[in-house]
Amino acid sequence: MPEGHTIHRLAKDYTSAFADGTPVHVTSPQGTFAAAAALLTHTPLHTADAHGKHLFLNFADSDAWIHIHLGLFGKVTFGPAPAPPPTDTVRLRLANDTAYVDLRGPTTCALITAPEKQAIHDRLGPDPLRPDADPHRAYARISRSRTTIAALLMDQKVVAGVGNVYRAEVLFRRNIDPYRPGKGITPAEWDAIWTDLVELMREGVRTNRIDTVRPEHTPEAMGRPPRVDDHGGEVYVYRRTHQPCHICGGEIRTADLAARNLFWCPTCQTQ
DNA sequence: AATGCATGCGCAG
DNA sequence: TGCGCCTGCATTA
């Protein structure tokens, strides 16, 4: 689930469901966050903010923030009131008269101060989904680095919010060999990657899934049988190992890169 | 029932 | 580079 688009979407969804000025019932059935929940409960949610894969919730009359990071398998479930009895893995539940939302399995769910929140912003790279993002900051690091562009795109200090799916897909869309060192990436190439990330991730926020296949390459447009990728979006290479490339028909390859699975088409990605 | 795997990340060495 | 951590689901036995 969680790449940056998911988190920005969650910020919107938390806001629209709970930041209406009415008090929110905050609980932590699983227990770990119970003390903090008790401090915040019965106050209204004020704002939600997202930077990369980090989500922040702020409650009225409090300068503290709930800092949430979903990690690899954190999940958030929204539903209408009345909320069902929580299962014992629910780390954080918000509930009001109309809705509830449950958080399970996050790497992080902690109450932090405003300076601590700022420190997180400071250590994250520009986020293609934030209006204040400066892509040149990312390029300054990339253009100095001998690390592969595939690894750099996953480094949250370089770019915030890109995960394994967007990494693989944007490199495919730009025909870029994932193993090229960052310092070989030209300003024009980085500009194209960044522009593509902005477009793809905005679309991801809107649809709440990752679709990267251009209209002219859909199975219908290519005269191929319809296809459903098993993670809920239409993609070119992510988890399509040994399947035919939508464009050249060659086999999609996979390899370990920095403890993650990399997917790419060696025929198309030669730039 | 047990195992493996995942769109993540921080830490030790 | 490898390990642990958070959870749920699919696959294997």
How far apart are the first and last residues' alpha carbons, in Å?
29 Å
Shape label: globular
Main sheet record: 8 strands, antiparallel
Q: What count of helical segments does DSSP give?
A: 7
CATH architecture of the largest domain: Orthogonal Bundle
| Rg, Å, rounded | 20 Å
Compute the number of strand runs.
10
Secondary structure: helix percent? 25-40%
Tell me the CATH topology of the largest domain: Helicase, Ruva Protein, domain 3
SSE topology string? HEHEEEEEEEHHHHHEE
Mean pLDDT: 95
InterPro entries: DNA_glyclase_Znf_dom_DNA_BS, FPG_cat, FPG_N, H2TH_FPG, Ribosomal_uS13-like_H2TH, Znf_DNA_glyclase/AP_lyase, Znf_FPG/IleRS
EC number: 4.2.99.18
Pfam families: Fapy_DNA_glyco (PF01149), H2TH (PF06831), zf-FPG_IleRS (PF06827)
Protein name: DNA-(apurinic or apyrimidinic site) lyase
Short description:
This protein is of the alpha+beta class and 271 residues long. The chain contains seven helices and ten strands.
General description of the model:
It is a single chain. The protein has 271 residues and is an alpha+beta fold. The chain folds into 2 domains: 4-123, MutM-like, N-terminal (N-terminal domain of MutM-like DNA repair proteins, Alpha-Beta Barrel); 135-264, Orthogonal Bundle (Helicase, Ruva Protein, domain 3), CATH 1.10.8.50. 28% of the residues lie in helices and 21% in strands. It has 7 helices and 10 strands. The chain has helices at residues 4-18, 34-40, 114-123, 135-142, 149-154, 164-173, 187-207; strands at residues 23-27, 43-51, 54-59, 65-69, 75-80, 90-95, 99-104, 108-112, 253-257, 260-264. The strands form 2 sheets. An 8-stranded antiparallel sheet has the order 5-7-6-1-2-3-4-8. Strands 9-10 form a two-stranded antiparallel sheet. Helix 1 (4-18) runs parallel beside helix 7 (187-207) and helix 6 (164-173) packs across helix 7 (187-207). It is globular. The mean pLDDT is 95. It binds a DNA duplex (13 and 13 nucleotides) through helix 6.
